[in-house]
Amino acid sequence: MKRIKYIYIVLMGLVVAGFSSCEDKLDQSPISSLGSNAFYQNEEDFITALSGVYNGLNAYPINHFELSEVRSDNIYSPGTAGVRDYNLINNFNRNLEATSIMNDTWNGLYNNIMRANTLLANLSANVVPDGDLRTRIEGEAKFLRALFYFDLVRFFGKVPVFDRPVTPLEALEIGRSEVPAVYDLIISDLEFSISNLPPNYSSATNFGRATSYAARGLLARVYMTRSGPQLHPDGPTLNSNEWGEALEQLNAIIDSNQFDLLDDYGDVFAYDNENNEEIVFDIQFLSGGQGVGGEYVQYHYPEAFGRSNEIPFAGGTFPDAPKTVSPDMMASFGDPDVRDDFSVWVNYFDANGNLVQDRFIKKYLDLDNLGVDRFDFELNFPVIRYSDILLMKAEALSQSGGSQLEIDALVNQVRSRAGYTLPLVLVSYEQIMEERRREFIGEGLRWHDLVRSGMAIDTMLDWIAADDAANKISTDINSDDLIYAVPLNQLDVKEGLYQQNPGY
């Protein structure tokens, strides 16, 4: 069973009381204010509002596929005719500020933060007298706010920080905070969540809610990102050397014995095996035309494939812009590896019976489990898996001079599940990152991994030289490309409030 429905059941007064007029006046700035005095009257109102904050996660799989997976050496999508936003992402175009994907990502994340801030500002003992419930609601909202800000800082670097609701006029005076200040709020929120959220939930109706271990996993990822070499002065990496802090969080998760690798890699993503013991935190989806299905699956397969396989309202990628799994990505899998066959569809027949030479991510697609349309896939999306915990620990040990024997054991544990019988010895940092690439293909981690490791520029230049058959990807890649452009409409809100990131 699913634990919570990530549907924002229009929050009555929260949405209508004063928001529409503010939106008309300042619809292009980070929104952190909603009229809500009439809404928060009892515990159920807060539970409904918290579901609304969770609902903001619906775009997470799409954002990280387009802005991390497509950006990386995993996907080759230069476009063949028309220009789609994700082609510009793939091609390292420097004119991204006017694209809808920049605007939608920025505004979407700030809308999510606004929801969390509004809930937190109204949370009190007068309305939620149950102290345990009140603390849990606060912990969940702060976990989600931290996740949203972590996305912002990884995508855009410096961003405005709102830790409370503000009016549109106040927002016009709040500029972009330095990256360390953004991290201060992220870390503070996650530390609160770790201290106040339960390690698990006994009721299946609560599956999918943030736990203390989910917060630990995210905090470990934050520390590791901060620890990466600072190649961009306003990027997400700070060369902070917090590998030990990350290890503390990772060891707590491992030592809990609450999580484990499943024997079969494919079972992690099975429609009838959701919320399994490998999931530390995932995003819940439901099918059946209830408005809470997952749209993200259609962002992977081609439209012609969807039509030939009778996916209702097929959707899929555009014919002029397939998202092809790159030759280099495919070549990285060894012969025993089961993850490529499970994760990648190689060639298909279209509706006219013609063989189409293409490779696309199929990890989340089960043709026996289709919803009512392309927006209605029910499979949950993993944000943090136990294999990620193991490989993050191997990476942190490698970066901090930890035990080589332990590094080897952690990596070989993941490789063994993938089908490799011959263990690696003296596993290098580069091998760890390649193992992550294979393990998490299609999960939106690759570009973030490359940025964190300091390998992004060299890796992408080598990949472009080898795989860019269409000769469309810029070879002028440098540190400016480690973060994205601030949306143009944000720069236009008030002259001088924000400055564009260098290179755009």
From TrEMBL:
Which residues belong to any copy of the SusD-like N-terminal domain?
A: 26-224
Where does it reside?
Cell outer membrane
The UniProt record lists the RagB/SusD domain at 361-504
**Keywords assigned by UniProt?**
Cell outer membrane, Membrane, Signal
> Is Membrane given among the entry's keywords?
yes
Q: Which family is annotated?
A: Belongs to the SusD family.
What's the protein called, per UniProt?
Answer: RagB/SusD family nutrient uptake outer membrane protein
User: What organism does this protein naturally occur in?
Assistant: Echinicola jeungdonensis
Lineage in the entry? Bacteria, Pseudomonadati, Bacteroidota, Cytophagia, Cytophagales
